[in-house]
Design a protein that fits this description.
Blueprint: E1 5-10, H1 12-29, E2 36-41, H2 45-53, E3 60-67, E4 80-83, E5 93-101, H3 105-116, E6 121-129, E7 142-146, E8 152-153, E9 169-172, H4 174-178
Parallel strand pairs: 2-3, 2-5, 5-6, 6-7
Antiparallel strand pairs: 1-9, 3-4, 8-9
Helix pairs in contact: 1-2
This protein binds 1-O-pyrophosphono-5-O-phosphono-alpha-D-ribofuranose, hypoxanthine and magnesium ion (MG).
Length: 179
Amino acid sequence: MQNDIQEILITEEEIHAKIKELGSKLSAEYEGRNPLVICVLKGAFIFMADLVKSITVPLELDFMAVSSYGASTKSSGVVKIIKDLDASVEGRDVLIVEDIIDSGLTLSHLIELLKSRKANTVRVVTLFDKPARRTVDLQADYTGFVLPDAFVVGYGLDYAEHYRNLPYIGILKPEIYSS
Ligand SMILES: O=P(O)(O)OC[C@H]1O[C@H](OP(=O)(O)OP(=O)(O)O)[C@H](O)[C@@H]1O
Ligand code: HPA
Ligand SMILES: [Mg+2]
């Protein structure tokens, strides 16, 4: 698995330090508001688990599974909901937890959906952002790291369902997906 990585971009230690910072900011923003924190599966599962441990105020969790990449390094453009939320978002302060914003299609779709379901507020925290690849105008409220325009894996992010369990973020060797 490690042999398929061209370069480690962000180490496990750097990721954990950044998540502590994000957790402090979010704890201040959501004091007394009991936010509904939504994990966008599968990619955000590790970030979600680490992030909520760094948030010190009461909150509730829910999970939604959404997919548009499949076994490709480019978005199919079709955002498929594989599992919907269990909770109602009506009147709630919602925090969407994403691993990465790339084209922006997944998030723009989700934000519209949650607004149409009458969430009180919808904010986004993403660990990684790849602004060079955006096809829709969209920015997270909280961002961990800005990445260069390369397909990355690890810390929850996959290529064809592999590499999610790497503890760091690395650039995948192009021969892995072009062969
Ligand atoms: O900004 P975008 O171009 O929409 O890309 C970002 C989304 O793509 C990935 O999900 P994917 O569809 O690969 O599903 P997964 O989380 O199950 O891997 C990633 O986890 C984000 O949710
Ligand atoms: O660079 C990426 N890696 C893995 N999954 C992704 N989904 C959007 N961009 C990426
Ligand atoms: Mg994926």
